[in-house]
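[step 3/7] fold_predict: job queued, chain A
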Amino acid sequence: MMATADQSERSPLRHRLNLFMLIRIIFVRLEKVNPRLLIHAKQVLKDCNALKKKGHPKFQNLAVSIECQMRKMIGENHWKESLRLLAACKRMNFKTAKNGRTVSIPSPESYSSTTALLQKHFETLCLGSNTSPKPCSCSC
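[step 4/7] structure written:
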């Protein structure tokens, strides 16, 4: 799982939301610095989802599988820089909230719809390719 400072951020929903934001940051970065790698990164999402649907045992937890496969695909440099940008975005949101501006936080009632929305985005952000991710050696 991604390292977080706050214990409450270790919940499965928080992990998925953080991963979704991280994936968006990765895609924006790769679009600018390495469009070819962006195509492969999008394929990771599609392949992880397909393997989960087929019932592959190492892909039952889609968020952990995507995180592990994406990290391997894009490499540690892109991964760490994207995490740094995600942390910077969170700090900016915290400063905005601290200054009295409104920050929207999903309510517990919207968790199931948020999860469904994340699943839909993961499916629609993918491009076609012929390669599938190999199951990783980590605990996912």
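[step 5/7] annotate
The chain is about 65% helix and 0% strand.
The CA atoms of residues 27 and 34 lie 10 Å apart.
exit 0
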